[in-house]
Structure formats: C-alpha cells, structure tokens
Amino acid sequence: MVVFKKVACLTAICVTFTGYVFSQNTVSLPVSLNKLDAFNKPGKNWVAVSSASADFSKSQNIKYKSGEGILLNTSKKDGTDLVSSQEFGDAEIDLDFMMAGSSVSAIYLEGRYGIKLADSWKKQNPTLADLGAVEQVTDNHGKAQDGSAPFMNVARAPGLWQHIKIKFRAPVFVNGVKTKNARFEEVSVNGTTIQLENDLTGPTVFTIFKDEKASGPLMIKGNGGIVAFRNITYTPLQPLPSPDFGNPLSKRRNAPVNPIFLKPQNQPYLLRSFLMFNHIKRTHVISMGDPNGLNFSYDLKQGALFQVWRGQFLDVTEMWENRGEPQLAKPLGSVLGLSVAPVLATLNNIENRWPDSVAFDDLQNKGYQLDKNRMPTFLYSYAGADITDKISAQANGESLLRNVSVTNAPGNFYFRIAEAAAIEKLENGLYAIGHQLYYIRFGEETKPVIRSTKNGQELIVALKKGSNTLSYSLIW
Questions:
Q1: Do residues 165 and 154 touch, judged by C-beta distance below 8 A?
Q2: Which of 232, 250, 268 is the last residue of a domain?
Q3: Mean pLDDT, the chain, as a whole number?
Q4: Which of 240, 216, 235, 246 minimizes the C-alpha distance to 107?
Q5: pTM above 0.70, yes or no
Q6: Number of domains present in the structure of the chain
Q7: Residue 6 belongs to some domain of the structure
Q8: Which residues pair with 100 in a beta bridge?
C-alpha cells in the first residue's frame, strides 16, 4: 500500500525551504582543533587526534591516532564539557561529527541553547532524545518544557562522519530588556533541513548559564559518551533586514503550496520517474521505498544503484501538478550519492580506466521481478553476459543487501563496488568508503581489490569467465 500525501507548507513536514539568503560578504572562519587552544581549560577527556574510526556494531567504541585536526571526547561518562574561548552572537555553525554507538552529546550556542547529538541510527520516529532535536527550555521553576523533535531522522551509522549546520539568532536586548528571543532559524543534518524557526524563551536544559545575553561561547557536551568533531567553522550572520522577517509566513520561499509526498505503508513501493542526479535528468530510473525507511534509485540503462537514502521516500509534486510536465521525483531525506556509471566492464588491463557510461543500445534491459516481499531483481544483458541484480532492504533497517549473478561472463570482466576519494579496509570484510561516508561489507568468499585512479580509489572484483555470484551489504 502506498499513500500520496498532500501537505500544506505551513506544517512541519514541509522541509523544502532552503534557508535565508544573506549577504555574501561574510566569511566562514575555522575553529582551530590542533592543540585545543581555542577552548577554555579543556578537561582531560578532550584530546586532539589525526584520525578516528568506530565499529558500528559496538557501543562506545572509537579508535584513534594521536595528531591534529580532530577533536575527540574519550570519556564514556562523567567527562567535562568543552567551552570555546571566543564568544558568538548571530552565527552559522558548521561542523562534522562522528558518533560512537550509543553515545549522546549536544552543541550549545552561547553555552545556553542546545541541539542534541545522538546515535539515532535506524530510528524511524525521532523524539526529543534524538539527533537534531532542539532541547527543552527550563522555566522559572526549573521545569523542562517545549523542545522540538526533528522533522525526520537522517542519522547515519556510528563511525561515519556526519554534518550539521546551525543558523542561530541571539536574543536581542534594549536597555537591558529582552525584546526578541533566541532562535534556531534552521538546523540541517547531512544536507537535510530538520528544524525551522524554533524560538527559545530561555536557556535549555543542561547548560552552563542560566541567564541570557547577546553573545556567548560555543559549548560541546562531554559527559554522554565518545564523540569526535572536525572542520568546525562559524560565519557571522548579517542583521535581519526588517522587523517582520521573523514572521514564519514570510520566509517559506520557493516551496510548493501543496507538495505531494509518496509514502510506502505496509510493503515496498516501486516508482518509475525522471530524476535529477549530478545536475543531469536521468530518464530510465526506478526508485524503491521501503516502510522501514531504506530507499534507493536505480538506473535501468546503466545497471547502476546510484543513490540511497533513509527516512521519507519521494516528493512527486512535479509528476502531478501543472500536468506533471517535468515528471521529476525528488528524494526526501539525506541522500547518499553513489555513481551512475555501470557496475560491469571489460578491462583488458586492470589499470584501464572505468567507463563513465554504457551506450544506450549496448545494455539490453529485460525488466525486473518482485519476490514475495516485493523486493526487486533487475534483469539485463551486457557484453554477452546475462545479469540478475537483486537489491533488498533488510528487515532490521541496517542495510541494503545486493545479490548479483552473472552468467556467460567474458574474460577480463570486472564488477565495480564503489569509487571514492579514499577507501579503507577495516576488519571482518568491512570497508569504509569516501573518508567514512558509508560502509561496504562482504562475505568471506569475496576478495575485492582497492585500486588507485586519477580521482581517488575504486573497489572492484574480478569475475571469472562463465558464471559468478557476488553479494555485499551497503550500510550508512
């Protein structure tokens, strides 16, 4: 069953707004993470390291190497908070973070207003305890109230680098009297907006200050578990152009009035559509949405699994409104882009360059089949070989499982699993792709090879002449 859901943009679920446009005069400034000298008296639980990695199947597990460039809280509990020496007012804060399994933390603007960080991987219905939540405000009697859960959960697996961007407005005081509340204008995680226009009537819980001021330090919580940070920058924001700009009705630009969202209910749903990828309209695309929130898109003329995402499925507004001329579907949630290049190629030499595409008539698409759980197997022929390509969302929500069978394979035939700037072999058949953006996991029988390319590295498997089977999981 699938639901076509029309949603007015005045509700929280309409997250297509891309934020305010500020003057381009502002410059993003880095916060040094080399010797912790950007922070006031950092506790022993905070160290500077050169690399960090974690086992997503274990709690409170991050391995690291000494050095510079990454800020790491090493304490599983009872660590001290980290407070910047510099103070900020209106600012946009950008940073990368890596959660250990079961860890929690928080970022506090001005040391007073908190955004939750947490290992919320695989959770479908986020709460105030999850990644990206605006923490509750403490009232005059010390009681927590309000708070805001994120629109959707876009958290990735422990051990993967994630990104958060926070646009914050400081409270305004005139003659010592507060005339405007502090406000989170927009919070995005992994490129997806999850909070908009959250007014804060006072400091949130677990802060170091109980009063309010026009500026204050950046604070990172240090007593909720192991977590790493890198690439912290801040950008001073230009003043608001008018007193009415804070009106929520004035800010929602470039969003459809009644977007139509496609939501699978009790079983997976497959949709044929056009879809933009890397600024090119792909015309032979099928996307699958699963009720547990694992979604993907597949190019039928390239045999390419080219993007995956968690959370809500598709915005199909442009397939229906105004006669649906663009026929474009748009993924909802945080998209992990892969590659639209073919996964199979003949290489006379293993050093040969991987082809960018297959000529339109060289790949003979034979449609797809659905198993009893409505998981698709794509069928096609290429270079004389017959290929079945089954992609299944795992019931536990952990990964997509890909099973490929190749018969009549010619000589020098290869399967490319991934291409990225960097690929790292971990333990037990696990590989970290793209400086820890996602994982690939193989069974013991598969022996992939990491090869260097002009743009980075590729993970490929040599196929034997004749029949082959290949299986791996994609985890993010």
A1: no
A2: 250
A3: 89
A4: 216
A5: yes
A6: 2
A7: no
A8: none
